[in-house]
Design a protein that fits this description.
This protein is α/β, with parallel strands linked by helices. About 35% of the residues lie in helices and about 25% in strands.
Length: about 250
């Protein structure tokens, strides 16, 4: 069986006369991190939104596992095994860390819509939340109010919530944005732990983290792919040097 968990072919998104993503193809493999880089306005977040179903493509296709999910909404795609984080942290600030993760796990439970069920009594949901909390490295913060933990921990919490839905494909949109050195190191370590059991697409501006993590890179400029390959191949590409990376890389 193929280890390609998500495949996008010739994706294009037009907003009126603007072509935000222009015939972009990408394959996400189990056990690999595929980083998408490029300057602001390159189309990276639009590509992520196309893959997750947040917006529908103008043309092209998206296959998740063996299923064509082109044009399906984000809830349906998520339930088929795709999880994502956003540029802006998306958590419940008044709730504890544990409550945030448990709510995410409960959304996938058999009793997700049963308002009369006691959440604490749902053992399978609690076990799923516990695994996600442990994998994200937040066990010691479980009873902390989400709004009081650090920015880096909030980003970890968002990933923990995503993991609680048990995805196989992760789309992570700038997970290191705004972090200090220590927080960024913890996030890099977390992504390395997640790699073996997931196919990951990473959109990120931190080039040190990108080159430390990525097995494959795609470089976008003005909605188009200008290079794709291994990190050494992309680093040496003259077009990439001129358009984005600069001589220091």
């Amino acid at each position: 069986m193929s280890d390609v968990l998500l495949s996008a072919k010739q994706l294009t998104k037009r907003f009126g006369g603007l072509v935000a993503v222009n015939q972009v193809s990408v394959d996400l493999w189990l056990g690999r991190i595929h980083a998408v880089i490029g300057p602001n306005g390159a189309g990276k977040s639009t590509l992520t939104n196309l893959l997750s179903g947040d917006i529908a493509p103008s043309s092209g296709s998206v296959t998740l596992g063996d299923t064509d999910v082109t044009g399906r909404g984000p809830d349906r795609i998520s339930r088929q095994g795709l999880g994502r984080s956003y540029q802006k942290t998306n958590i419940f600030l008044p709730f504890t860390v544990w409550e945030n993760v448990r709510l995410a796990a409960q959304s996938r439970g058999a009793h997700a819509t049963n308002l009369l069920s006691r959440a604490a009594s749902l053992g399978d949901i609690n076990a799923r939340a516990e695994r996600a909390l442990e994998l994200a490295g937040l066990q010691q913060r479980r009873q902390s109010i989400a709004g009081t933990i650090s920015h880096g921990e909030q980003r970890q919490l968002e990933i923990a919530m995503t993991l609680a839905t048990e995805p196989r494909v992760l789309l992570l949109d700038e997970p290191l944005a705004g972090m200090g050195v220590a927080e960024a190191e913890r996030m890099v370590a977390l992504l390395q732990r997640l790699k073996s059991d997931h196919a990951i697409m990473l959109v990120e501006h931190d080039m040190d983290a990108v080159f430390a993590l990525a097995d494959r890179l795609t470089v976008m400029v003005n909605g188009q792919v200008i290079a794709s390959g291994t990190p050494p191949e992309v680093r040496a590409d003259a077009n990439v040097q001129s358009a984005y990376l600069g001589e220091e890389h």
